[in-house]
């Protein structure tokens, strides 16, 4: 069976949280950072559930017996594309919506837009100047790229896999404009995380004030 095969049970879009990075610049696991009272991993999963994705998995780390939603990397140190390959090979979805775990200002509306445009166009869809988050149909183009990259003797462990950009160059894709670039602010360092904290705490106060005035 090929890695992109579709059956009646997994033909819907699969939500994927990329959480397999080393977080070396952050100095601690980005998935465990607290966004208000919620871990970033849980926040990211909830965003994907909020747009109607019934199944969400986490890419990266070790397979856990009591957590079948976590997909371990089949090939170590292969980067985000390696994580995508592992998810597709494990779950064989028709399409995936990929969200990195380090976007604390992301919204469900922004993700829903990607999914909608991607489904209508039947193309990979992402925001301009940001290759992820990414809606990715698992079509013949994606399948061929992943097979050529990771299967057989084609892939050598060099400490990193191909980039998302390299994948997108080989598949039909569409870049769309974000109505709010703030949602794409990613946090790789403690300084960036502090900036994000100030922003989402301010948002929480504004939301509470608005609710109180109703």
Count every beta strand, where a strand is a DSSP E run of 2 or more residues. Answer: 9
Mind summarizing the main beta sheet?
A: 7 strands, mixed
Provide the domain count: 1
Strand order within the widest sheet? 5-4-1-6-8-7-9
Kindly report the name of the CATH homologous superfamily: Spore Coat Polysaccharide Biosynthesis Protein SpsA, Chain A
Arithmetic mean of pLDDT: 86
Structural class: alpha/beta
The rounded Rg comes to: 17 Å
Order of helices and strands: EEEHEEHEHEEHHEH
Stretches where pLDDT is under 50 for at least 5 consecutive residues are: 1-11
The best one-word shape is globular
Question: Which features characterize this protein?
Answer:
214 residues; two-stranded antiparallel sheet; single chain; 6 helices; alpha/beta; seven-stranded mixed beta sheet; Spore Coat Polysaccharide Biosynthesis Protein SpsA, Chain A
Please tell me about this protein's structure.
- This protein is α/β, with parallel strands linked by helices and 214 residues long.
- It has one domain: Spore Coat Polysaccharide Biosynthesis Protein SpsA, Chain A.
- It contains six helices and nine strands; from the N terminus they run βββαββαβαββααβα.
- It has helices at 40-50, 79-91, 108-121, 140-150, 164-168, 190-212; strands at residues 13-18, 34-35, 38-39, 56-59, 70-71, 95-100, 124-127, 130-137, 173-176.
- The strands form two sheets. The chain has a seven-stranded mixed beta sheet, sandwiched between helices. Strands 2-3 form a two-stranded antiparallel ribbon.
- Mean pLDDT is 86; it is low at 1-11.
């Amino acid at each position: 069976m090929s890695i992109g095969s579709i059956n009646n049970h997994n033909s819907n879009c699969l939500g994927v949280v990329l959480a397999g990075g080393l977080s070396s610049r952050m100095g601690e696991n980005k998935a465990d950072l607290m966004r208000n009272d919620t871990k970033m991993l849980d926040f990211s999963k909830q965003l994907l559930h909020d747009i109607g994705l019934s199944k969400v998995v986490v890419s990266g780390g070790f397979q856990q017996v009591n957590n079948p939603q976590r997909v371990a990397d089949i090939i170590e140190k292969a980067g985000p594309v390696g994580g995508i390959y592992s998810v597709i090979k494990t779950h064989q979805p028709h399409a995936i919506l990929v969200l990195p775990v380090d976007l604390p200002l992301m919204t469900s509306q922004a993700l829903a837009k990607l999914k909608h445009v991607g489904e209508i166009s039947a193309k990979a869809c992402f925001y301009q100047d940001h290759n992820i988050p990414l809606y990715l149909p698992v079509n013949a183009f994606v399948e061929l790229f992943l097979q050529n990259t990771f299967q057989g003797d084609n892939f050598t462990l060099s400490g990193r896999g191909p980039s998302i950009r390299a994948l997108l160059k080989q598949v039909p894709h569409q870049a769309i404009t974000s109505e709010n670039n703030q949602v794409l602010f990613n946090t790789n360092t403690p300084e960036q995380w502090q900036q994000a904290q100030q922003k989402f705490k301010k948002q929480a106060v504004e939301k509470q004030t608005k609710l109180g005035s109703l």
